[in-house]
Specification:
The structure holds three protein chains of three kinds. Chain A contains 14 helices and five strands. Chain A is α+β, with helices and mostly antiparallel strands. In chain A, a hairpin with a 3-residue loop joins strand 4 and strand 5. The radius of gyration of chain A is 26 Å and the shape is elongated. The N and C termini of chain A lie close together (about 10 Å). In chain B, a hairpin with a 4-residue loop joins strand 1 and strand 2. Chain B has a two-stranded antiparallel sheet. Chain C starts with 12 loop residues before the first helix and ends with a strand. Classes of the chains: A alpha+beta, B mainly alpha, C alpha+beta. At the A-B interface, helix 7, helix 8, helix 11, helix 13 and helix 14 of A face helix 1, helix 7, helix 8, helix 10 and helix 14 of B.
Amino acid sequence: MAEPEAILERGGSPLGGPTAVADTREQRIFVASQWQLMWWRFRKHKVAVASAVVVASFYLIVLGADFLAYADPNASEAHRSLMPPQRVYWFDGGRLSPHVYGLKGARDPQTFKRVYVADPDRKIPIRFFAEGFEYRLFGLIPTTRHLIGVDGGADATQAVFLLGTDVQGRDLWSRLMYGTRISLTIGLFGVTVSLILGVVLGGFSGFYGGMADTIIQRTIEILRSIPTIPLWMGLAAALPRDWSVLQVYFAITIIISLLGWTELARVVRGRFLSMREEDFVVSARLVGCSQMRTIFVHMVPSFMSHIIAATTLALPAMIISETALSFLGLGLRPPAISWGVLLQQAQNVQTVAISPWLMLPAVPVIIAVMAFNFLGDGLRDAADPYGR
Amino acid sequence: MLAYIGRRALLGIFTVWAISVLAFAIIQLPPGDYVTSYIAQMASMGSVVTDEEAQNLRIQYGLGQPIYVQYFKWMRLIVQGNFGMSMEWRRPVTEVIGERLWLTVIVSVAALILTWVLALPIGIYSAVRQYSVGDYVATFIGFIGLAVPNFLLALVLLYLGFVLFNAHIGGLFSPEFQDAEWSGARAWDLAKHLPIPAVILGLAGTAQQIRIMRANLLDELRKPYVVTARSKGLSEARVILRYPVRVALNPFASTIGYTLPYIVSGSIIVSLVLGLPTVGPLLLKALIAQDMFLAGTIVLLLGVMTVIGTLISDIVLVLIDPRIRLEET
Amino acid sequence: MTDLGRTPRTRQRRSRIVMALVVGLLTTVLAAGALAQMAKSGLIGKLEGPEVVTDPAKFPKTLNEAPQLAALVKAGKLPPVAERVGQDPLVIKPLREIGRYGGTWRAGFTGPADFWNGFRCCSGPDHLMFWDYTGDKVMPNLARGLEMQDGGRAWLLHLRRGMKWSDGKPFTADDFVFWFEDIYRNKDLIPTPSAAMAINGKQGTIEKVDTHTVRFKFPEPYYMLPDVLAGSTDLAGQMFGYRGMGGFAPAHYLKQFHPKYAGAAELDRKVKEAKFDSWVRMFLAKNDWALNPDLPVLSAWKTVTPINTPTWTLERNPYSVFVDTAGNQLPYIDRVVLALAENLEVLNLRAVAGEYDYASRHVDLGKLPVFIENQQKGGYKVYLDPGDYGGDMIIKFNLNYDADPEIGKWFNTADFRRALALGIDRDQINETFWLGTGTPSSVVPADGNKYNPGPQYRKMWATLDVKKANEMLDKLGLAKKDGDGYRLRADGKGRLRIEIMTLGGQFVQYTQIAEMIREQWKKIGIDLTVQEVERSLALKRTAANEQQLGAWNNDGSEHLFTFPLHVFPFELAAVATSGPLYVKWFHSAGAQGKEPEPRMKELMEKWKKAFGVPEKERIQLGKDIWKIAAEEVYIIGVIGMGPASMGVRVVKNNMGNIPSRQYNSPDGKTPGISRPATFFYKN
């Protein structure tokens, strides 16, 4: 068991010597609950806190994707093809009035590129909470309000294109909103499957030990020795190509999580093993608690935090896996929109050379993966305020 | 000690066999077989394969038989050192794979070395200056490698290489060295082409290693013997490097086993984009065409590579850290 | 979970239709302007090419050869060039100038399945007869002449005296007889006889008249034989040798692999030694132009390192019968090196970087701006060769679809098909995917094609007319719509949903185009689902009659009679079908399958008849066939005469005799039709 000073010290520099402890602080620490201690530890990790905010914002986007998008993500229009991101002008003659200029586009007969010229006579003001295409808020309430838009609503022949358009003239910002929704929910779903598998199998392994443990351990080792990409390629190549986009979506998450549960199982098993000998578990058994009760009421809460940390760290792997599978042509495919699909559509020479803004979906991928990683790190550091 | 190694080796062999079964099963999963894929290819080029021709082909390639029969046929061949014929390439599998496997190893090892070269100093610095700005910046750099989609990065680097340096596009060799015999010049040519793939792959694994190094070192630095060393007057650098780092390296060694499959996997995607003559692009084509023996052999060999890697790291670990032997019950 | 990205249209639909019409008008105007501008871009040149000289008076009197061959002759290792070429050389007048010897042609290929790559660039071509550079006239090629006898029932093929295989052995009528008797008629090698050797279902024969004359004999007049010999059919030279086809084969070499000539025991030993499963497999592998470096050939270059290695190398054939008008034995270029590029992006980027001397295969039209941008840096020029066929992209209706009787009924209703055709905004598709270089069109071939039925058929049922489409569909009984604006089925079972099957990873982006069409068909109330599948699955579904709509292209259809595959249901093994049961009916003369409806039947009958009638009548039959196709819209034409399929050409500036525009066709083995043997390096 660790001394209270040592608890505080873990948050400080390990190279310094023991520091003096104020009496009141010591009191608070003694009295604080496990979760409060964790929160205090977590707070110290500034980047982790910032990451938590970022992650929360992402999930807000997931909820409000339709609201944040302002154009129908599937509406194609050849004359808007490959528009670069539009420059937003914030002031109009001194007043705060965000607007863009209408664009005239044509294909240059010499270079065959689409060239857009701003028409200075056509100012298109950006309205907030404007009318746009129809959707259902939270899947229930039909509405046409979006965060931003232009006059004329869904009929406007000219609109604002914050991040430009793709080859088919579809607005990239709106597609990105919908892509965020799909990519982050795939992650959640996949991680849940991994979690269930990991906890169940890891728990079995750690709690019962013996033959069950050996078998599960060996299986984990075998699975971890297999290079994942060939396995995914094989499994995904086996998916019937005439499944609907939704079916493929679920199948992909299951495929990815089939290999992802090993890490969680390892953590859970480790926890169970070390906890089996702890006094409080032994006493629970002696008092007469059933096995189920021992596990779920006494043991699980004490490593819950580790599970949360490990789960958070598994998410970025899911996101990267989804993009990798889409790249291989084995993951989600159009008309589905996900980060992987958007990146796959940008994965060509003409995008890199001529329309690089189509690579912007890589930015939320990078931010999300890093945010989840830092968050997970912070959670893991804070996970066990009492000991190693 | 020998018993431990022996046990691990046995497990390794079992793992390899399990991988072979898994690989074979997965390859057979897609509907149809090589002949259906072949007919489709011919059809899309306007050539015709009649029903009888298809039947004949099936018999020639032994595709009409049940899966387990085909599997045992393959196993029998492997034991004799023959990995079967590739139907797509109409050559023995060993010839098709040829030097690609070695090139895959070289690329993966180069990435691994780069990973360590980056991760070690960053991890040490991170642990020593925990929560400082330097810590965050260093970890940030480490994580960028993990977060950037490597296929996109590869394409961008490929294009930039052409635009800025007029570099030869992709591949691991310049055209004149592609089929040449091994020589000093060829090796140098290979070395010139390695940086881009190694960087893209290596960066991805760096984050994980940084984390591990940092965590282990942090644990060590809290131990009493560090305080002792410092109080005895040793310089800071020696305090850190002589003892804690060496102990912290132990689990590092064990991670080779798990980093290797990760890097090999990653190398497949990067190879696809950069057009490297490694095993990756070959495997993708083989899986789609259902070229059974080729795909199965590649997956098997990749699995063997990683199992051997794991075994080596286990042995290294046992040699370094006697505690492992005792823990392994 | 919300519907993945689809949004319903409601009351705003009417105003949207008006908007669409306005936009449609605007785009038509803009498209016309764009087309005019495109012509100014200079990327599409004038159709030109080298000519075959047939007047013996114009033949060169003396012959020259490449320096390295001359050295070998001096060393006594090779007979002199006059002896190698023979008395009747195949004289070709180069497009611009007499060239120089030397150089290596660098190109890329994608793997062992990419054998068309080699045939197109390097086979000569080695057809017995071949097309002139317009793709219209049949000229003598490896054969010196073709003479019709007996009202078309017999054809005399005159060979060239002194012509030799690449190993120096004579090329004679024996090579034809060997092919016909010992390969074509051998049921193990060729289980099913070829339609190319038959007229009205009756097989013909080949017999030797003398050393340099061969007779093709048929039970009925077979007027089409010259076209069949010129086109990429089963009688098209060694290209299809790997299947046992070709019309001729090197008897002196292949006999050792044939049970009739090699002893059974000896053959068995050879088979085991070479690790083949059977003599059939070995024989066909030995007869493979791209795979066997030992196979004697007649093409301009011959394979030195085979296609199943990372570098497919071809070198000049010292016995090549091709010469230029100055007497220089062709080819000028010494070697062709095709380097493996397994990834199309890498291949295209290498072409952008100028690493290939001449590339057209696998070049992606979508990257056109990048190619143009790098012309100077890469030292090359970009050319566009639009095809002559009406459908760079087409959509086939499966007329035999019966899994859902209502849908099957609609597919067989002409006005339904026509309405759907009118609902496609082709200008949008052309602009987005063809960068404006294609032509919105019905399925009929280019205006200059001899079978084209007339300019009015270009736009027949191939314009955007949402109003008319809606009217037609309403009149058919599909007027009722659901809340989202989609039409309801007539049998009351809910929304009318149809499905289109597409293939990914092709020269044309079928899936993305189909998605665009899906959005466009919303305006006419049709709910379309897009299914992207793998080639083998596509094949399985078409053969099993599971496909509803299929997207593909009809390249080759400009040569209607040698490439009918995408004009009417002709082949079971197709990645998109118009009716597998009709295919069976067609090939079994009515014994199997299902009898087609009257106009389709008429089309099929005309097609069959054309083979046995003189040219003038055949041309009229061809026109009639296209008329029916355009009127009935069994297949919707979307964009035609585009350069998407091997029509984007990147050629280094130091290459000579390069045409500014060439006939882009599989029958023409483009660039074969421009005689790459006359290409040379200026420095």
